Amino acid sequence: MYEGGCLCGRLRFRADAEPIWPHLCSCPHCQKLAGGPVAAWVDFPFERFEWTGDGGEPTWYNTYPTTKRGFCPTCGSLVAAIDDGGAFMGITMMALDDYSGLTPVHQGSKDNAVAWLPTIETIDAGA
Fold it and tell me: Is 38 left (phi over 0), alpha (psi -120 to 50) or beta?
């Protein structure tokens, strides 16, 4: 069971599933949204994910034509992302109450990564 939420606690969530594809993203949107050189993400299947806090779901903002990012309307924390037609809820790893067992296995948009932070190589899940 994974749980987490935003900085102020209005948005809370629970995922009763193993996390899928923990990764970093260096795309310009993630950098601006995170206010840093990368955003750390992990996915959970929709059917095993629920919003549990008093704030309900985040406020959604389209950052790409087919991708929405979810923010807390009170504190502004970026907590989630969903793709149109996708099967997973993307959650920022830092929104999890305990992310200590997760290690990113991929970094997207390496061509946009800052030069002063090493990038990670994709780890083959079958290895």
Answer: beta
Helices (H) and strands (E) in the chain, counts: 1, 10
DSSP string, 38-64: -EEEEEEEGGGEEE-STT-SPEEEEEE
107-116: per-residue pLDDT in tens?
988 998 999 9
Domain 2-99 has CATH 3.40.50.2300: no
* Domain residue extents for the chain: 2-99
Contact 50, 30 (CB under 8 A): no
What's the token pair of residue 88?
């997973």
User: Which residue in the block uniquely carries the two structure tokens 């806090």?
Assistant: 53
Q: Which residues are within 8 A (CB) of 5 and not within 5 positions of it... i.e. 6 or more apart? A: 11, 12, 13, 53, 79, 95, 97
Residue type (1 letter), 98 = D
pLDDT on residue 63: 87
- Taking the model in full, what pTM does it have? 0.89
